[in-house]
Amino acid sequence: MVIGLDGLDELVKVVLARGFRAVGPVVADGAITLSEIGGASDLPSGWQDNQAPGHYGLTQTGSSRLFDWAVGPQSVKAEVFPPRATIWRAKAPEYTVEEVADASPAVAVIGVRPCDLAALDVLGRALDGGPVQDPTYHRRRRGAFLVTVECTRPASTCFCAAMGTGPGAAQGFDIALTELDGGVAADGSPPDGHAPQYLARAGSQLGRDVLLELPQRPATEEDRVQRVALLARAGSRMGRSVDNSGLPELLARNLANRRWDEVAERCLACGNCTSVCPTCFCSNFEDTTDLNGTVERRRTWASCSDLAYSYVHGGPVRSSIKSRYRQWATHKFSWWWDQFGVSGCVGCGRCITWCPAGIDITEEIAALRASDGVGEP
Amino acid sequence: MELSASSRLLHHPLFAGLPLATVERISLDAHNVAFEPGQVILAEGSPASTLYLLEHGKVALSAHAPGRGHVLVQTLGPGEVLGLSWLFPPYQWRFDAHAVEFVEALAVDGARLRALIEDDPVLGYQVIKRIAPLVVERLQQTRVQLLDLYGSGTNGYGNRPA
Amino acid sequence: MATVLPERALAPSRPGPFTPVVFRVLRRDQEAPDVVTLALQPGPGQPFEFAPGQFNMLTAFGVGEVPISISSSPGRGPLLHTVREVGPVTRALCRAPIGSPIGVRGPFGTDWGINDFAQADAVVVAGGIGLAPLRGAIELLLERVGLPAGPRKVVVLVGARTPDQLIFRSDLETWSSLGAEVAVTVDMGSEGWKGDVGVVTQLVRGAGFDPARSMALVCGPEIMMRFAIQALIERGVLPTSIRLRISLERNMQCGSGICGHCQLGPYILCRGGPVVTYPAASRLLSEAEL
Fold it and tell me: Per residue in C71-83, is it b (16+ CB within 10 Å) or e — as a string?
């Protein structure tokens, strides 16, 4: 079926009424960020992004389209895997351990991109798919209501098509929306006076139930054809690409490739890439204590680009920036396969945009492929 | 039955497989020695004049460090060789050596063996060819000892504590 | 949450994987100047099962949590952990008073797989504190010598920096009296030391085992393991018959495969290790800063 802006607004109100927190994209601090929303009027109307290595900018076009941007710096990750959490508490002298259960209300996220949906599947394999499941992630993921919006205007840093994660969404959502023509076309031509409309599909029973409550009209064949054309156009306009053939083996045999030394001269080990990446899952477990003798174990996001990340007594194992960049890239595109059976990368391009040195992972991979096997003897 | 010096030389890994004539020539300068536990065999700084082919027991090489006593740096056992400093100038022992357990060995006169090596290049080559790998092997072992494999003070990667 | 369907209802929280169980310190034995074996007593009704080679995450309340090898054998007396004092958490553990509470999570990791030793010569090469995770395996292997499912013989080769850093010296004597071939060497000896002085690789060369039918277990600092394994292979032991234990000291934090810290190449050591077979690990050990 097809809904309009009123239907979208009603969608937010319906999930709120059902007890979910509603989170969606808004413009804040010069970027598209995820925040609590009350209705469609909070969404980034008329905004377009332009992204490049080390560059992110927004322009206002005056149209009524809501989704002519690719991705902001945040993914859904923080909603299901909070950056900070207290795991348990214990008090001196007996130290009876008392768990701190996650009690956050269920979240409904409006505007999840297909790459981020794929990222949730990847993340879930690490946090929820092994012999041990993270209770907080498990609970929040199961409770989350996801409304994905397929991409019709990829950024120059996007390569979801090459990674097989977009621009369309096939599964993992409760509702999938595609912003059809209307407002202003994705190529930037002036507003045509029509408001955008959204082709909507349900991906779950709850999604079906929610859609039934929205003002709508049936989808026509024309709507469906338009969706296919929009996705095809988006797919052909991806800014970047990765050749995935034999990539895990390639990276695993190029640990001594001189390219790593070269990129290390540019990398600042600032950790932005790990911070914006929707699949990075590393965390620190640390104990804190207060003067009353209460001990808390806390879990916080960690980054392998951090010097202290690989600390063992005597010093860090990965002292050099080279070893840390190599670890991140090789894990993401090679060892992730050994560990979880998928690539760790979904092609969202955030690491390229948000790197202050403008390092482009797709360029690095291409360079490694070109110099395969050339390295120290 | 008492073995002849030649037989004992042939039994020892250092000389096993050498032509009989060579072994018999060397055996003329070899005689049996034995040491009680604790007995000093070599003293650091004294003239080096003997090659010991160890057959039984254990020998410890050590150096005396003020405040640390005798530090043992290597032990040698049957089939091994004690004493190579007779081969090159200044012909002086660098370390002490004493018997840890009862030791039995064949002692070969170093000065005469050295003269033999100088006079007879063919025999000399055969002997040096046997001794050289021993030296290399001992060097490798010593390097590994220097690596301090057990990581005390480092994390095994050579990083000093922060 | 009135109209949320049951399938969407948030599951009630259940005991989490990061929650330690409180054990009490039963005994503390000083093995070496910086090494202590802690004997821990579980609470009532808390049987603790594990296989030799596995480790626990021990919490010193108020200080932190670290991975420590289990050094006892299953079913034989209290739970033993041999700890080397290298930082604040291990210092707190090494000085924990008798009766004090210690948090325990585990057991984690792969074990030595001693069921695979039928009719093999079991060769154990240990360096420094590496003997601790091997202790339980050695005891069990010795028990099984001569049984159809057990090894033909047990050879224990131990290296340490100096004599005062040798651990489990009385166990070494016991094992020798039980028929194991035990050889010990130190890098540097002091007066009064009657044992061997030299690298542990030398012991491998001289030990009495048949390389063609041996299974080797190697544990110690990574650099020591590299050289020991080289010596085993030079003697003809098959690389696939060599198992080593990659050091736990890789900033392991959750023990559960989630925090990411213990990764070594493709391995998540708390899950796919720390015991691995040599072919799988060989390149990983020699690549610097991996």
Answer: bbbbeeeebbbbb
pLDDT tens, A8-31?
999 999 999 999 999 999 999 999
CA A317 – CA A310 distance, rounded (Å): 5
Cα–chain-centroid distance for residue C74? 13
Q: What is the CATH classification number for the domain harbouring C89? A: 2.40.30.10
CA A115 centroid distance within chain = 7
Alpha-carbon gap, residue A318 to A332, rounded angstroms: 17
pLDDT in tens, A323-368: 999 999 999 999 999 999 999 999 999 999 999 999 999 999 999 9
Tokens of A180: 């059809």
Q: Encoding tokens for residue A315?
A: 């010093």
Interface contact B159-A315, CB threshold 8 A: yes
**ipTM of the assembly?**
0.89
* Chain A 301-340, residues with CB within 8 Å of chain B CB atoms: 312-317, 319
The token pair that represents A347 in the structure block: 């092609």
**C189 SS3 class:** strand
In this complex, which of B58, B72, B141 lies closest to C190 when CB atoms are compared?
B72
pTM for this model (two decimals) = 0.84
Name the residue of chain A whose CA is nearest to C60's CA: A287
In a domain, C3, yes or no: no
Q: Tokens standing for C170?
A: 């009385």
Mark yes or no for CB contact A134/C249 under 8 Å: no
| Strands A198-202, A175-179: pairing kind | antiparallel
Chains that touch C (3 or more CB pairs under 8 A): A, B
Question: Is the pLDDT at A185 greater than 60, yes or no?
Answer: no
Number of domains in chain B: 1
Q: Which of C19, C94, C100, C262 to mutate to test the interface with A (most CBs of A within 10 A)?
A: C19
What's the domain count of chain C? 2
Are the beta carbons of B162 and A319 separated by less than 8 Å?
no
